[in-house]
Amino acid sequence: MLLLALTVAVVGLSPDASRTSNRIAVYLQGAGIRVVPVHPGHDEILGEPAYRSLLAIPEEVEIDVVCVFRRPEFAAEVVVADGTDDLGGVAEGVAVV
Length: 97
Description:
This protein is α/β, with parallel strands linked by helices and 97 residues long.
């Protein structure tokens, strides 16, 4: 799925270049994949506008894959908080990192 992705939302993308989320996002950008940062504490990360949540991303931005950089106990919370009450409905096409 990731190999076919054109746009990847990265939940928890850190602006800190030493963080794993940042290094992976930079790699994806270098491969020609658009990265859409999702982080409530920032307006822009890696030259892209950052959104407070997945639901805050405009509808015209088509997201192919969502990568979640949160501790495992909070990863499901990210999905549920963004409007999905059944995790089975989001399993396809979602990468939890």
